[in-house]
Amino acid sequence: MTAVVMMLSSCAAKEEPPHDPELLLGFSQLGTESAWRSGNSADIEKKAEENGVSLMLENANRKQENQIAAIRRFIAYQVDVIAFSPIVEEGWDNVLLEAKEAGIPVVLVDRDISTDKEGLISCHIGADFYQEGVMAGEYLLRKADRLKKDKLHIVEITGTEDSTPMRQRQAGFMDTISGDERMEVIESVNGDFLKSRGAECMRYLLEKYGEDIDVVYSHNDEMTLGALPEIEKAGLTPGDDMVIISIDGGQEAIDVLKRGRINCVVECTPMLGQELMDTAKKLKAGESVEAVIHPKEKYFSDEMDLSGLGPRGY
Ligand code: GZL
Q1: Which one of 3, 217, 258, 304 has the fewest CB atoms closer than 10 angstroms to its CB?
Q2: Domains (ranges, CATH) in the chain?
Q3: pLDDT value at position 19?
Q4: Ligand 1 mutation pick, 29, 36, 85, max ligand atoms within 8 A of CB
C-alpha cells in the first residue's frame, strides 16, 4: 500500500502547473521629470514582477524621438504587447502603423495621443485630465465665495506644451471658471512639468504682476514646489496672500497642503501598473479590453480635515 501511495504521490509531484506562457511587455516611459513619473515607473516595475510579466522598460529622457526608437526596438524584438506614455499627443502615426502591421497591440499609459487613424491603440489607461481641471476650477469658485472678493487675478503655470494633461487640465479649469466674472486669467506660462521651470515662471510672473496675483493654478506639484519659494522670497505667503492650486497629489505637496502653503491638490494617481498588467494579459490571450480605463480620482483641500490622510506612495 505504501508503495502505491508513494508512486501516486510521486506522479502527482511530477504534474507541472499549466505553464503560463511568459508575457513580454515593452514599455517606453517618457522620462523622470517628477515624483509622479518616478512613482509611475516604480509601480509598473513592481506590478510586472508581481504578475510574472517580463518587462522591458526604456526611459526616453523626455524626447519623442527616443520613444519612437524604443517602440521600433520592441517591434524588432517581437514583444507581445507595447505600452508607452506619449510625451506629446501628435507624431505617432507612422511608428504605430508599424506596430499594427507587426500585429503587436499597443496600450497607452497615462497620456493620450491625437490621431485620425483607426485601430492604432487597443486601450488607454490614464486619468481624466479634463475632470482634474474641473475639480481645480470648482475649488476656486468655492474659495472665491469664502474670500468674498469681486475679482481674482489668476496666473497659470502649464505642463508640457501639447501634452494631454496640459491641454485638458487647462480646458477643464477654464471651462469651469469662464462664466464667473470674478475670474480673470492674466497670463499662462509653460513650466514643462519641471520644478526648475516652475520657479522660473513664478519669478517672471512676480516681476510682472507682483502682489496683483491672487491665484496660482499649476498643472503639477513639481512646478508648484518650485514656485513656492519664489513667492516667499517676494515677501508673500503662499496659501494666504495667494491661493495655490496644484495637481498630482504626491507626498511632498500634501505635506505642504497640511501646512497651509497650498490650498488645493487634485489627485492624479501614478499607480497604473496593475491595470496595465491585466490589460496586457488579456491582449496576449486575445481577449477584448476596454478602450479607456480612468482611475477614480479626488482632491484634497483646505476645506477638509487631512489629519487622517495616509502615506501617498509617490
Ligand atoms: C499626469 C502626468 C504628468 C504629471 C506630471 O498623468 O502625465 O506628467 O501630472 C508628470 O507630474 O510630469
Answers
A1: 3
A2: 5-125+270-296 (3.40.50.2300), 129-268 (3.40.50.2300)
A3: 41
A4: 36
